[in-house]
Amino acid sequence: MCCFSGPVKHVAETSIFCRMGARGNQVVIYSMVLEAEQDLAMVLPVPVAEQRDEDSVSFIDLSLSPDFFPKLDRAFPRPKLRTSSSAPFASALDPGKPLEVQAVGSFEASFVPRVTDFERLDERFRLPDGVWEKLPQFADHGFVVFKLKAGRTRVHPMAFAYPARDRTKIVFPTVHIHDGTVHPRADFDHSLYCQSESSEVRMGWQESVALAAGYVNATRLRGSVLGDRHVYKRQIVGEFENADVSVAAV
User: Global pTM?
Assistant: First the structure.
């Protein structure tokens, strides 16, 4: 699911699409149903390459494709329920320079290169003090941040690409922080999608009945999805270890 900077009343039907690009950039497309009483930020830790700065992440505007996941889901007419448990901070960049906030469709978004760079981010986007110290596995990650509006809505797809540290592995950002605390286990309600030719995916995930281009407009999706490839799907529903999910990219 994700990490939120404030309390949420309800989060459900999380959908995440990922693929590894030919140059080692991982694409992530993320959507969900969210209900919150106040504006807040969603933070996604990502295993970005060690050499990075605040421009390392490319945000992709998919505001014209709000129905991306419903259309993609038509490629899986008989979905099978599958469950699975997933198996020192660096110094900040220029501490006096605020991080850029970009408009991406109906969102404002930023990329935080390292944990210590959160102090450069607008306070409205930050998580409570001490959260990342409780998650040492993310000490060397970067953080993609989206500001979301109060109310109940199905969030239109948020998309971005980042230079992956490990090009052989696709990582789905599914760790949960919903109340400012870190719990060892969490409730999952996820549909995961990927494009990968690995045997792990081809044998363990449900395959689309046709190429992606039969269901979604790859051009409108700005290259984030390959129209000439199949898509694979896995559902994770229930209580599992509070961690990211990963699969082989090749």
Answer: 0.87
